[in-house]
Amino acid sequence: MSEKITIAVVDDHPLMRNGIVSTLSEAGFDVVATGGSADDAIRIADEHQPRMMLLDLSMPGGGLDAAKVICAIHPAMKVMILTVSEREDDVIAAMSTGVCGYILKGISGGDLVATLKAVNHGETYITPNLAARLISKSHTAISRSTSKSADVQLTVREEQILLEVKAGHTNKEIARKLALSEKTVKHYMTSVLQKLRARNRVEAAMTDLPKRD
Description:
Blueprint: E1 6-10, H1 14-26, E2 30-35, H2 38-48, E3 52-56, H3 63-73, E4 78-83, H4 88-96, E5 101-104, H5 109-120, E6 125-126, H6 128-136, H7 146-149, H8 156-166, H9 171-178, H10 182-196, H11 201-205
Parallel strand pairs: 1-2, 1-3, 3-4, 4-5, 5-6
Helix pairs in contact: 2-3, 8-10, 9-10
């Protein structure tokens, strides 16, 4: 039997928080702590050190401020933002803190569980319509300049996988489409992130690749 994934849920709305806790507990997650503020989130991260944390964006003290502190002190912890905000600057600000996901509160319980499991296995998640909107804007704040990518040399396979990432596909979907193992896709993505000096797949997806000769 696989070990349960430990997670903490921090949201200042008790009804929302309790609903999330119930959903995750039924799905087999080990909810080790809950809270309602940024201070709670930082304390829980230090005391309980869960594998994952789900933070409300607009809770007292600020979800982004809490995420920034937690990601800096506990870099292995998988922190995700859960919010109603679809503002592009909120998404960009959140991803710049080092979080692994930006999830809208309209998500279903089943999709939330699936998303958290994917993030636990190394995925970075942004609600698809937000990701598509960001990727389509090549001149946003986290866009990589053409000059910065001009000397980057990706292999044909790496470019192929990056194009799939730009289309919003997960590692599992890319593996299925290209007849590769998911582990192999992750290996290529690690190489792509290193070459592009990107912190996550969203930044990688927003990089303009140099044309091949």
